[in-house]
């Protein structure tokens, strides 16, 4: 299993008085029971750390500072430890309860500002006490992200992730490798690139070139061929390739010719992961089977022009989805920066490959859909699903495969 070095994880510091629900917040956000907080006074002065994968952000390290509001010698020690924790915090999360906001919270915010650490304010347990509206407005006017939650019931988790996404420094939103984590140095990848009428004249398209570059950066190597040459290539290799990547158009043919033991995926799937959140897209694709005649589907294109395969989102995917449900679905298409604030009328959102968006933009939309409980997938994942190839194409990505299979 590949692990992310601690230094490359986004360090999220949890701050706040004891018993405001920092532990519940962590459990709610991670969906795991992570008991990292000792609420027994005097048991520890050291912040506790927990490394994990927080989708859709990526690898993070939560630092829990325990309660820092207590007085006395031990309290002083904790305060010092907290100051140290701030120094290695990328994003601070100040957890508070509406009623108990006071100098303690204001001073912590001040400490974050002094250390130039971005802070999110979470008012937890809002089912019991809500923060004063003027306070929320004032915090927001000061540019703070403010989230209201009932962490013990997992209410507000999506809003919390969105707030996190809004403030995560750009360097932490670096996409995962395209194939670098799937192949080892010295291994071979076969790339299947159909050259048909749709292929641009005299060149390869950017995702193909980027994949090759990533293979070279990984000290691996590749064979680039058309689907008609695949069989002969596989026959001539002394050992099977570590990975085979095909253009979606040739999926069926390539799937037939490639032995099951060779891990196989598509360029579109690689880029769905690179740009977005592949497990969420896989789960979204599974929702296609639940669509019913008359349901609304939103097709979102990230740019207003569509230079590559212009009819995928407006014609091919709608035609296939209609055929799949055995009747007419209602399609809305949005493009560029247009994206509805309310996606709840939709039973599915199908997003384009987002080559013109940065990762944060697409992840924000994904979080918005998850928050609204609306499945979201993308063109490449939907196409693989429509061809009955998604399960196989997710073979190299067990976490996404698990979400497809529910
Ligand atoms: S994948 Fe999206 S962003 Fe890229 S060309 Fe097509 S519509 Fe535009």
CATH architecture of the largest domain: 3-Layer(aba) Sandwich
Helical residue percent band = 25-40%
- Which overall shape is indicated by the principal axes computed on the Cα atoms? globular
Average pLDDT figure: 87
How many domains is the backbone divided into?
3
The CATH class assignment of the largest domain is Alpha Beta
CATH superfamily of the largest domain: P-loop containing nucleotide triphosphate hydrolases
Q: Counting H and I runs of at least 4 residues, what is the number of helices?
A: 15
For the biggest β-sheet, the strand order reads 2-3-1-4-5-6
Distance between the termini: 22 Å
Reported for the largest beta sheet, the result is: 6 strands, mixed
Bound molecules: iron/sulfur cluster
Number of strands: 14
Q: Kindly provide the radius of gyration, computed on alpha-carbon positions and rounded to a whole number of angstroms.
A: 24 Å
The helix/strand order is: EHEEHEHEHEHEHEHEHEHHEHEEHEHHH
């Amino acid at each position: 299993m590949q692990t992310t070095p601690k230094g490359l994880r986004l360090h999220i510091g949890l701050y706040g008085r004891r018993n405001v629900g920092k532990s519940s917040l962590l459990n709610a956000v991670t969906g795991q029971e992570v008991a990292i907080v000792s609420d027994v006074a005097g048991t520890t002065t050291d912040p506790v750390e927990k490394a994990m994968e927080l989708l859709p952000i990526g690898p993070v390290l939560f630092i829990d500072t325990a309660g820092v509001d207590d007085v006395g010698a031990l309290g002083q020690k904790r305060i010092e430890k907290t100051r140290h924790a701030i120094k290695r915090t990328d994003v601070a999360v100040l957890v508070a309860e509406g009623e108990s906001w006071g100098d303690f919270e204001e001073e912590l915010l001040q400490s974050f500002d002094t250390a130039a650490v971005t802070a999110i304010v979470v008012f937890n347990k809002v089912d019991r006490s809500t923060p004063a509206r003027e306070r929320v407005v004032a915090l927001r006017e000061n540019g703070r992200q403010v989230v209201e939650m009932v962490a013990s019931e997992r209410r507000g988790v999506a809003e919390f992730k969105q707030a996190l996404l809004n403030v995560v420094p750009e360097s932490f939103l670096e996409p995962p490798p395209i194939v670098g984590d799937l192949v080892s140095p010295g291994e071979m990848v076969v790339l299947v690139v159909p050259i048909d009428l749709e292929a641009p004249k005299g060149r390869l398209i950017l995702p193909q070139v980027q994949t090759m570059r990533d293979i070279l950066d990984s000290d691996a190597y590749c064979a680039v061929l058309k689907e008609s040459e695949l069989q002969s290539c596989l026959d001539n290799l002394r050992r099977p390739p570590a990975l085979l990547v095909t253009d979606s158009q040739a999926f069926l043919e390539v799937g037939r010719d490639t032995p099951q033991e060779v891990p196989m995926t598509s360029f579109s799937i690689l880029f769905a992961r690179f740009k977005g959140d592949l497990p969420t897209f896989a789960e979204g694709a599974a929702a296609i089977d639940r669509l019913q005649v008359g349901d609304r589907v939103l097709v979102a294109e990230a740019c207003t022009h569509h230079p590559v395969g212009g009819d995928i989102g407006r014609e091919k995917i709608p035609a296939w989805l209609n055929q799949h449900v055995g009747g007419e679905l209602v399609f809305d298409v949005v493009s560029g920066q247009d994206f509805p604030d309310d996606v709840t009328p939709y039973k599915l959102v199908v997003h384009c490959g987002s080559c013109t968006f940065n990762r944060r933009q697409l992840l924000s939309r994904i979080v918005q859909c998850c928050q609204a409980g609306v499945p979201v997938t993308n063109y490449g994942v939907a196409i693989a699903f429509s061809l009955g190839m998604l399960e196989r194409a997710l073979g190299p990505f067990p976490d996404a495969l698990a979400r497809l299979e529910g």
